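Course assignment 3, question 2. Fill in each field.
Student: A.L.
Task: Predict the tertiary structure for the chain below.
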Amino acid sequence: MDPVEALEEVAFLLERGRASTYRVEAFRTAAEALAEVGPDAVRRLHTAGSLQDVPGIGKRTAQVVREALSGTVPAYLAQLLADAGGPLVTGGEAVRAALRGDLHTHTDWSDGGSPLEVMVAAAQRVGHEYLAVTDHSPRLTVAHGLSADRLAEQLDVIAGLEVDGLRVLTGIEVDILDDGSLDQSPRLLQVLDVVVASVHSKLRMDETAMTRRMLGAVKDPATDVLGHCTGRLVEGGRGQRPQSTFDADRVFAACAEHD
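Answer field:
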């Protein structure tokens, strides 16, 4: 097994299991370090027992590398694969195969666990044609939402990417404020490729107020997508949460009208 791929898969599974960012980054950093060294040099270091001389390679990551080079699935990776289990539901393979991209993603600029470049590489590996970067807006401080200045900085970073076969779209998941307005500079919203508008606070607001709030966002010319409008949690480590109440007929009719 390729040791770099093994380390990357460990990092992915740790992140999927909501392990600490420190643990995820340890394996991701090790993978990057070995990729830079090159496969021939990695084998020489392994033979000499000097893997940990490479900056970024520690005891546990070195063990994964040794086991991968021996031709077996590293024990730690096998354990993570077993713990990960299957999906919450079965089916949907045909739909998944038809997917061409993702219009709602978070990087480590806000509350995502992966750097932008890693997510771009992952999208390329699965054959996607496009990836929209939609980090959070400033009001969501718990998610390190992007201020106008940070969003402008991110736009410059995206513009500087050199990516083959994948279109990286600029975007944001912008908070819908209580009055239905959007939590980001209108000037910046106008230049983004994709604006996902979502409610993240006061999810138990009464139906009339929530409907008015959503309608305000949907009618904003900058809005492209109404995000997770029910606000419910079905399963996962954060427990369950009932859906928000709103006039779905009015809200979805407005979505169709302002498409």
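Instructor remarks: The first strand starts at residue 101 and ends at 102. Residues 93-257 form a domain with the TIM Barrel fold (CATH 3.20.20.140).
Grade: pending
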